[in-house]
Structure formats: structure tokens, C-alpha cells
Amino acid sequence: MQEELFTSGRHIPNIDPSLQIWHWPISLYLFLGGLAAGILFFAALFYLMGKDKEYPTAVKVATVIPPIALSIGLLALVYDLTHKLYTWQLYMTFRIESPMSWGAWVLLIVTPLSFLWTFSYYREVYPNLERKLKVFQKFKFLNAVEKFVQENRIYMAYALIPLTLVLGVYTGILLSAFNARPLWNNAILGPLFLVSGLSTGAAAIILLSKSVKERHMFGKIDLALIIIELALIVHMIMGFYAGSQVQLEAVQLLVGGEFTLMFFGFVVLLGLIIPAILELIELIGYKVPVVVPALLVILGGLIFRFVMVEAGQLTRFLY
Amino acid sequence: MVIDTLKCVGCSDCVVACQTENDVPIGYCRDWITETVSGTYPNLDLELKSERCNHCENAPCVRCCPTGASHQIEGGIVLVTHDECIGCGACIESCPYDARYQHPDGYVDKCTFCHHRLEKGQLPACVSVCPTKCMYFGDLDNPNSEVSQLLKNRKYKTLAPEAGTDPHVFYLT
What is the nearest CA distance from A197 to chain B, expressed in angstroms? Predict the structure, then answer.
């Protein structure tokens, strides 16, 4: 027996027909947060392994990105709030069940650490900066701060490893904790966003690195991360197909629906498979301009965040 | 709250009463009417009902709120403290009923079961104006209350029970 079913809309002009509460600033922030977490994670890791001389881009040079990325990301987040003057309320409480509360507190620690980390290396990376900027001569205490952070770099590195992992996972859990949006509500999204963030971080290091050895090292790391990411995406899609009715409907957006080209074309093919092949070819010994796979990975990561944020908000339980 | 779908005629009086009572800005609603047609022609069935925040026992909006602005008061009503709300929209994303909206002033707003009226011993505005008296409001913990008796004696359903929110608006069918 075929059942016809029709439910009228609610006719609320400013809310219906579809929920669009989170816009581009959220997608941009999720990307920048993941990127910053990735770079800082590698910086801290290679510093703790005592490889800061061998991999100077990862530990010193590329870490100029996280403070900028996090600052832009935080501005984007605040821009998306509608009750901006009350933002300080985030820091009046810690709510263990709310991923956003976790994120707010982690960012409060990671952002200053990212500035301090870059600051502790500025003399090595930009030898002429001190002469050019009068601020270092005017404010002598800056030199004392610099000395202090240089001496305590190891503690910063130990703190950054768990903090960046939490930051990377949280960008995914922020979405996956919403039962009401079936496309987001899968446990793999946290690890997936973490791996994607680490991968874009590795790609950014490749982009800035001048040493062949370092580029090869991060090419290998990135390749491994891309393979893990592809496996997690397969897991995610399988999970939807094994899920409930609402999840079956949600996955249609990615498979055969309006986001198919964006997801499989731009994210999976151009953002993961092609860069993986290019990096593989380069590792075998052929000459490939490293800029190409690195940029593809970074753009793929950015598009991935946009697809997930936009598509997720179209999926729902009722109406 | 208990709503009798067999008595509701979809007149939208509850919607207008709520907008008036709670100064809901134009273009937004805290409650709304849906019409559902089901069955196979010619055996069709039409169901009309008034929907709103379900004041869930296991409220996802309260769980995901980063500041604690969304909270549950004694008796189960879910409220938003405007001065604690930062307008992040997490609660809107978390609601399977899409019962919340961002007020033009910035904070997130939704049905309060007319908490300010309940304190004075009055019924919620929507319940008090319903011309067919299809809405009932009361204490579900009291087995002798009108709502408890209705749920004891009539067939009922809740919306999207599979979302696991344990909603507190019941529809008699």
C-alpha cells in the first residue's frame, strides 16, 4: 500500500523554510582552527623530538600562521554571534556537556600560546625585525618576556600537544554533538576534522619549507593523513547507510544530491585523491611542484568545512 | 501540555495570542500550526495541530549551551536567560523541532509556556484563547490533574520521539 504524506510548512517567514543559522564565518573558523591546530601540533611534536634544527619550517617558520589564523577565526566567530556584547558570558562558566564551552576555553589558552611560541623564535626567523621595529627598544620588558618563553618552551610544547588535539577534535564535535542535524550527528566527524586539520597543517608546512628533506618528511606525513582521512570518509558514508531513516535522507545530500559535486569532486577527488597521487609520485623521485598538492589539500580542507556546515543545516527530523 | 488534534481546527488563534502576549517580533513565531495529510486517496486523513517548544526532559538545547543561558527550571520548563545568551545559535542547531529563533535584539527566544502568566496562576496565552479548547496545561507529576487523566484515558503521541529528547507536549490522536 502506498501512503501519501504531506505536511504543510509552518509559514514563519524569518525562520522557514530551512534553518540557516551558521554562515560562512563558522565554516571559515572551523578550517582555520584545524589548520592552526595542525601546525602547532607538528611544531610542538618536532620540538619535543629535538628536531628543531632539522625541521626549522615546522618548528619555527610556519608557526607564524597559527596566531594569524586563530585571530581571524576568533573574529569570525564573534562576528557570527548575534548578542556580541555578552560574549564574556562564555568565560563566566564551564559547561562540561557543551562542546562550544570546551572550545571557548581551549582557544583562550591556545591562542596566547601560539603568539608566545612565534614570539620566542622571532629573532631567529626574522633577524632584522628587531632593528626595524622600535617597539623592542622602547619596551625593554619584551626582551625579558622573550627570554622567559625561550627558557620555558618545553613546557609550552608539552601543553600544546594535548591542547591542539582537543582543538582539532572539537571543531568536528561542535557539529557532531547535534542530534537534531542527522548529517552532523556521527561520531566519526571529530576524528575526521582532526585528521583533516593535521593534513592541512602539514600541507602549509610543505608550502613554506625550503629544504627538500623537510618537504619529503611532511609529504610522507601528509600522504598518511590523507589515506586515514579517506578511510574515515568511507566510514562516515557507510555509517549513514547503516543508520536510521533521517540519516539515510541526510546522506542523499552528499551522494546524488545537491552537494555531490562539491563533496566528491572538490573535497574527495581534488582535495584528497589527486594530491595523494602527486605526493606519491614525488616521493618515488619524479619532480612535482610541491605547491600544487599542498594548495589542493588546503583548499580541499576549506571546501570540506563549507560543505559540512551548509549541508548539515538542511537535514532535520520534522517537516 | 496536552493538545487534542481531533479538536484543533487550525485557526491560528494560539499563534496570534502568543505573538501579542509575548511581543514576538513580526516575521517570527513561538508557536505555529501544521497540517498533515496522510493515507492513500480516497482514504485520506487530515491532522491539524499547534506546535511549539516541547520543553524536553532531556533537552539538547540546555546540554549544548556554552554559557548556561538555556536552562530547565523546577517543573521542567526550559527557559533562556537573555542576559546570559551570546547568540551563538548552538541551541537552534540542536533543536529537532526548530522551536527557537534569533530575536532581532540578538538573544535566542522561544516558547516559555508563558512562565510569567503561570506565576500569577494564569494559563499560557495560547491555551487560554483556544476557541475549541483543544489545549490543556497542567502538572504531569500529579496523577489526578486533567492532563494526567487525559494521557491515561486517550491515545497520544509525541513529536520525533526517535530524537530521544523526551518531549513534554503530548498530542491526543
Answer: 22
Q: State whether the Cα torsion A142-A143-A144-A145 is positive or negative.
A: positive
Q: Check CB contact under 8 Å for A180 and B41.
A: no
Domains, chain A, with CATH or none: 24-312 (1.20.1630.10)
* Contact residues on chain A for B97, CB-CB shorter than 8 A: 317-318
Chain A: residue whose CA lies nearest to B90: A100
CA distances B69 to A174, A209, B63, B74, B167, Å, are 18, 46, 11, 15, 20
Asked if A178's CB is within 8 angstroms of B87's CB, the reply is no
Please tell me the pTM assigned to this model: 0.92
pLDDT per residue as tens digits for the range B83-128: 999 999 999 999 999 999 999 999 999 999 999 999 999 999 999 9
Domains and CATH numbers, chain B: 2-172 (3.30.70.20)
Strand pairing category for B78-80 and B156-157: unpaired
SS3 B6: coil
Which residues does chain B have within 8 Å of residue A97's beta carbon, measured at their own beta carbons?
A: 63-64
B23 touches chain A (CB under 8 A): no
User: Is the ipTM beyond the 0.90 threshold?
Assistant: no
